[in-house]
Amino acid sequence: MEIYVHIPFCLRKCRYCDFLSFPCGGEEKRRYLSALGREIAGCGRGRGEGAVTSIYFGGGTPSLLSGEEMKDLTESLKRQFFLAPEAEITMEANPGTLTASHLAGYREAGVNRISIGCQSVHEAELSLLGRIHRYEDFQESYRLAREEGFDNVNIDLMYGLPGQTIDSWRQSLEAVCALSPEHISAYSLIVEEGTPFADMDLDLPDEEAERQMAADTVEILTGHGYARYEISNYARPGFACRHNIGYWDGTPYLSFGLGASSYMDHTRWRNTRSMANYLKNVSVPACLRRDVEILTVENRMEEYMFLGLRMTAGVSQSEFAKRFGRSMNEVYGRKIEHFVREKLLTNSGDRVFLTERGMDLANVVMAEFLLH
Ligand code: SF4
């Protein structure tokens, strides 16, 4: 199983952000971290669940935590769960919040993978996004992470930004490749309702430019030796993010913290998004849970397909039969045949996966695997 821990604090809200995150004071952070420790200790689950293969601290900005605070959290988790010796422990970090002493503390806490939000190498683009940092802050954070011995680093980038050109996106990709991180995530901007971006008159790249940016991403990153293993994720050999692969594979995960979503025993739920409620009820897991949904076999088959097809390795027919007691052909044979004819899907041996063109139209293809 995997574990996710949500740290909902950020210094300032970015203009495109619809994650559960907000600025906080020191006292609020302390109360939240103490509550997290209680939630972990009282979760009613533990070593009986089997080995934890991955822990992911996401946010928000987990790098607002000191090394000591991170150590307390990982200790709480280790007291409660059996951590596999080779477990991947990732934390998200934002430039402008990382210091050498924080990083040394994170290493001591057992963090062995760091994911840094860079987004762009251009000041004008960063400023429009409302990021708290400049590109040189990112460069400094990256340098510090390497100096402190982090040898598994992801860099996040975004395209389709207001004012961004095909050239400026190519420059961002090239600049980040020159740093040689182990992993690069390249997402296209989605303007979400309720964010400041949704109310702004944005000069966004048109569809054709965005398609070109997507194509350039594949060309430049694969040209620099990064293998695309998921629609938006690229890695050097051996550095694909195990946590994310687990999520796309349907590995159960237990999450802690405000608004955090879990999937265990074929049941999905999320924690309350109200801080007052969270702090008050943290010792009684049942009082935190919202939107509890027990997945039917059909739900699980759908998820297996549309999450699995996000990965370039696609889905396994034998694993499908093992999990659901029916062959993939029996359930999805016609759809698969249709998309193979359209050259959006292909198969090799046991696996069915998206073609390169299929990756571009992934949402259309994946939607067809919903059974209802
Ligand atoms: S740093 Fe991330 S989580 Fe925080 S406001 Fe910006 S996009 Fe949202």
Task: List its traits.
372 residues; alpha/beta; TIM Barrel; 2 domains; 41% helix
In short:
The protein has 15 helices and 15 strands. The chain is an alpha/beta fold and 372 residues long.
Describe the structure.
The chain has 372 residues and is of the alpha/beta class. The chain has 2 domains: 2-247, Aldolase class I (TIM Barrel, Alpha-Beta Barrel), CATH 3.20.20.70; 309-367, Arc Repressor Mutant, subunit A (Orthogonal Bundle). The protein is 41% helix and 22% strand. The chain contains 15 helices and 15 strands. The strands form 3 sheets. A 9-stranded mixed sheet has the order 7-8-6-5-4-3-2-1-9, with helices on both faces. A 3-stranded antiparallel sheet has the order 10-11-12. β2, α2 and β3 form a beta-alpha-beta unit. The chain starts with a strand and ends in a 5-residue tail after the last helix. The mean pLDDT is 96. Bound molecules: iron/sulfur cluster (SF4). Iron/sulfur cluster binds at residues 10, 13-14, 17, 19, 21, 59-61, 94, 117.
> Radius of gyration over alpha carbons?
21 Å
CATH class type of the largest domain: Alpha Beta
Q: Count the DSSP helices.
A: 15
Give helix and strand order, one letter per element, not per position: EHEHEHEHHEHEHEEHEEEHHEHEHHEEHH
Query: How many angstroms separate the termini?
Result: 29 Å
CATH architecture annotation name of the largest domain: Alpha-Beta Barrel
Q: Tell me which ligands are bound.
A: iron/sulfur cluster
In round numbers, the mean pLDDT is: 96
Total of domains:
2
Q: What is the helical fraction, as a range of percent?
A: 40-55%
Q: Fill in the CATH topology of the largest domain.
A: TIM Barrel
Give me the side-by-side strand order of the main sheet.
7-8-6-5-4-3-2-1-9
The structure class reads alpha/beta
What is the CATH superfamily label of the largest domain? Answer: Aldolase class I
- Broad shape: globular
Largest sheet: 9 strands, mixed
Work out the number of β strands: 15
